[in-house]
Amino acid sequence: MGNPGFQFPRLCATTEALLSKECCPVWEGDGSACGASSGRGFCRDVEVSDLPNGMNYPFSGLDDRERWPLVFYNRTCQCASNYMGFNCGECQFGLFGAKCEERRESVRRNVFHLSAAERRKLISYLNLAKHTFSQDYVIATGTYREMNNGSTPLFSDVSTYDVFVWMHYYVSRNALLGGPGNVWTDVDFAHWAPAFLPWHRVYLLHWEREIRKLTGDFEFSIPYWDWRDAQGCDVCTDDLMGAQSPRDPNLISPASVFSSWRVMCSRAEDYSVRGVLCDGNYEGPLLRNPGNHNHNLVARLPTAAEVEFTVSLRDYDTGSMDRSANFSFRNTLEGLGNSREMGMHASLHIFMNGSMSSVQGSANDPIFLLHHAYVDSIYEQWLRRHAPEQTHYPEFNAPIGHNRQYHMVPFIPLHRNIEYFTSSKELGYQYSYMLSSGALVLGALVTMTVAAVAATMTRVCWGAWPWQRREKRSSFHLPEREPLIISSDSDTV
């Protein structure tokens, strides 16, 4: 069987593929490119949208992610009907069987509802993925220009887990404009703009599928951490994501397998200074010191009332559709807005005070998966409650990478942002707390407190974040090497 690829399928990381700009591998099921002989798909020219992007990125032809994936490939497998994958050898999400005609629905459950055996299985699956080299994918360690336009491929082998760490780094990294220190920071193809939620939805779906294939457990689903009203890191226990080390509060307990994990792609500032990409080498232990963060940025974890207020917002995105979007569901859920404090999604990252607090390196911490599964469930609530038309998603003038028809970086096969502006039920999964009576709210109704929350959240929805008032070279990057992510006497992150 083929696989649901993303950058870079090993079969497309060759001199021949790069020089021909064609990524159309053979499907082993019939020996033809893209499974064409079986009608699964065909090798075709990539079509990209030419609608204008927002003004945040004023360049053209400098970054490999522009008009994705044309810098690397202008022909890829385009799969028919129910098929997907870089060679059309897989089924669309939620479909199974030899001809991808069997529809199944998985359920993502609260991590605290897992039995002791299920918790052990989750940890063993994560650890297996961390220590098993990916058979199908490699990571790019140089730009296309550094590859001499394809004649000198620069790729490295990493584990299945670390492929996803690299993907999250690559989509959010600074643009390299040429030479040490010459970078553009006001760019991110998966954050701070409309594609934030669709992109992470696809990311989790691919990660879930890779775990299923690696383990042979096709019943596996990512659990979520419901962090509403939590007083601390409830999942930071040795039977889950690892407790705090008694010897060093920045490290994981030696009783947890995660204490032996090493991180990669965690030194964003260093890469920018040197003008290079992450090379995939390990850079030190997994760091986490939850709760010992800058409390001026995050006073506490989000409440149930704040989640309800966020879901109540009608507009998916507003204004310039970036970090300054006012009363935008996406921006409020992402946790930005225009207050000195950060909320919702972003507050969890800051609260963890370690590897998870660097945007580019955050996927190194397995808590990232539980956290984003819950964020995705809030996105799902909003979709069900407001039932938006696809035209509700911005067609043009969003920051680069975020327009409706833009292909998500760095996925191959290609996914457009708009394709995942749809209910999880269409993609073959649901969340356990939404199964009864078509629930549209998170647990118990909290409407009695929404008015009070609205007054607080209004401060998050107006004004400007401190770094937005600075020059564009000042962006949201939280260096891994600083245990306390942001010093109390600086507003630069």
UniProtKB/TrEMBL annotation:
Subcellular location: Melanosome membrane
Keywords for the protein's UniProt record, in alphabetical order: Copper, Glycoprotein, Melanin biosynthesis, Membrane, Metal-binding, Monooxygenase, Oxidoreductase, Signal, Transmembrane, Transmembrane helix
SUPFAM superfamilies per the UniProt record, alphabetical: Di-copper centre-containing domain
GO CC list: melanosome membrane
Name of one Pfam family that matches: Tyrosinase
Membrane topology category: Single-pass type I membrane protein
Keyword Membrane attached: yes
Required cofactor names: Cu(2+)
Main localization (coarse): membrane
Transmembrane segment boundaries: 440-465
Leading EC class: oxidoreductase
Entries under InterPro entries matching the protein: Di-copper_centre_dom_sf, Tyrosinase/Hemocyanin, Tyrosinase_Cu-bd
GO terms for MF: identical protein binding; metal ion binding; tyrosinase activity
Tyrosinase copper-binding domain mapped to chain residues: 191-208, 365-376
Record EC number: 1.14.18.1
An annotated GO BP: melanin biosynthetic process
UniProt cross-references to PANTHER family, sorted A to Z: TYROSINASE, TYROSINASE FAMILY MEMBER
Family according to the record: Belongs to the tyrosinase family.
Protein name: Tyrosinase
Species of provenance: Hucho hucho
